[in-house]
Task: inverse folding
């Protein structure tokens, strides 16, 4: 066993030594190979680096050469451009010198002309002075010979020309006016007849009744009440005056406001129907009458808007109620709300025919008399009140202006002229308005008195219910030319001083009769 162990140890030592020797040789050989390869790689690297350096030097030399060539070309181009510019500058300098020479020459010519013109102007001034002197001398000699001053001679000359040419001038004026009037009249008749026939409505004069019918005369005592307490309560609640007279079966309501009169009338009718008449019941009846009337007024305004084709929602409800109040307002017996509807529709139709703004005419025509709805409660004339109301509710200027335009002699817009014409048509239709006998006679007398106040007027007659005034003049005092001026003056005075519906035609008649007998 020991021998075997020794043998194993010896073998192990021998194997390890042999392995070490072999490994060392192999390692030495591997190192040698690696060093060889490294030297070979290093040599190859040196060769390649040398080649790269050679190539870089070659490229550097090429780049340098190319840069030198480019710089040379740039320098040559710059020299050529500089030479060209120098040549251009030289030419420009020559042209400028030439122009300067020409300017100097022309300046000298202008100076010469200026001097010559100054001399000629001086000569002309001297000649003017001489001519004026000669003219003054001739004028003085003529005045001395004619024994007339310049002003007197001009007056005499104009008088002679007027005498000789007045007949021809009057004939020409008469002819021009006749042709113009015929053409305008034909066109206006065609337009108005078309609008009127398209809108044909019934005409009926309305009156605001203030009489309340009683079932019996005994009701008068109940309305008056004990010591007049009932009638005082009615008057205090309604703001009107109750007139109880000897008229059988009726009492009269008096008051400036048509709305208050209507409230009083309805309250009295309700009290008479109910039979209970005392202050507490009177207060209730008046309150109910106000509510009913407010509802009816609003509905009347809405119906008017629908009739003319305006959306109800586009108008403020307060303004709709103000418009409805006109149902209980009359002007010369004509219902104000119906009149406004007619004006709106006539304006719309005429605007369609002549190409004006239809919407402005329609809306302005409907609200042109809106001031009449509150003129009993507000101070001022109804055109200004209506204008302020429309502006307050946001109407544009061209629509609000219609409230004023229909009372102006010359409206500043075509829409204003249309509304003015429609207002005159609606108010002057036969049967649309009425006046009392006293008012009619007074208006006729005022027309005749106004026309007769002019010098040279012999007689004046108002005819056709005041639609025309015929004026007879003295031929010796009024000639044909003066007759035209007299007619205009009379018309202007009637417009300024008198109140009348529609228009008044002024006809001046000048007649000369010469009678001679041959024997």
Result:
């Amino acid at each position: 066993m020991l021998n075997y162990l020794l043998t194993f140890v010896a073998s192990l030592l021998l194997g390890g030594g042999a392995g070490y020797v072999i490994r060392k040789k192999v390692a030495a050989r591997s190192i040698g190979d690696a060093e060889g390869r490294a030297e070979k790689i290093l040599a190859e690297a040196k060769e390649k680096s040398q080649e790269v350096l050679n190539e870089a030097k070659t490229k550097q030399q090429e780049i340098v050469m190319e840069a030198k060539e480019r710089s040379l070309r740039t320098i040559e181009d710059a020299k050529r451009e500089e030479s060209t510019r120098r040549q251009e500058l030289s030419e420009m300098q020559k042209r400028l010198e030439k122009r300067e020479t020409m300017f100097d020459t022309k300046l000298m010519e202008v100076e010469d002309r200026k001097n010559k013109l100054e001399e000629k102007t001086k000569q002309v001034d001297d000649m003017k002075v001489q001519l004026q002197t000669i003219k003054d001398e001739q004028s003085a000699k003529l005045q001395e010979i004619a024994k007339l001053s310049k002003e007197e001679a001009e007056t005499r000359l104009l008088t002679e020309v007027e005498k000789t040419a007045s007949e021809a001038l009057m004939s020409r004026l008469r002819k021009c006016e006749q042709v113009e009037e015929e053409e305008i009249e034909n066109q206006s008749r065609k337009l108005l007849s078309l609008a009127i026939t398209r809108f044909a409505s019934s005409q009926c004069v309305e009156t605001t009744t203030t009489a309340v019918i009683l079932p019996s005369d005994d009701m008068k005592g109940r309305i008056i009440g004990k010591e007049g307490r009932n009638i005082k309560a009615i008057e205090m609640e309604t703001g009107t005056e109750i007139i109880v007279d000897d008229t059988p079966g009726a009492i009269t309501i008096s008051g400036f406001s048509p709305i208050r009169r209507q409230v009083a009338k309805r309250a009295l009718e309700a009290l008479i129907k109910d039979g209970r008449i005392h202050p507490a019941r009177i207060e209730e009846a008046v309150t109910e009458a106000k509510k009913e009337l407010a509802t009816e007024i609003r509905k009347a305004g809405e119906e008017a808007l629908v009739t003319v084709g305006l959306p109800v929602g586009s108008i403020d409800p307060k303004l709709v109620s103000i418009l409805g109040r006109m149902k209980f307002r009359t002007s010369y017996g004509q219902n104000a709300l119906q009149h406004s509807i007619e004006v709106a529709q006539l304006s719309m139709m005429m605007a369609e025919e002549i190409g004006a703004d239809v919407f402005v005419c329609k809306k302005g025509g409907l609200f042109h008399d809106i001031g009449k709805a509150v003129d009993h409660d507000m101070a001022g004339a109804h055109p200004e009140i209506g204008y302020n109301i429309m502006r307050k509710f946001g109407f544009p200027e061209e629509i609000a202006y219609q409230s004023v335009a229909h009372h102006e002699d010359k409206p500043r817009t075509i829409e204003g002229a249309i509304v003015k014409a429609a207002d005159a048509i609606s108010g002057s239709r036969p049967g649309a308005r009425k006046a009392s006998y006293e008012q009619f006679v007074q208006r006729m007398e005022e027309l005749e008195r106004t026309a007769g106040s002019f010098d040279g007027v012999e007689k004046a007659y108002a005819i056709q219910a005041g639609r025309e005034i015929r004026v007879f003049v003295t031929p010796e005092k009024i000639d044909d030319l003066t007759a035209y001026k007299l007619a205009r003056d009379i018309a202007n005075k009637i417009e300024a001083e008198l109140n009348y519906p529609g228009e008044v035609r002024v006809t001046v008649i000048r007649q000369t009769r010469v009678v001679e007998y041959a024997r």
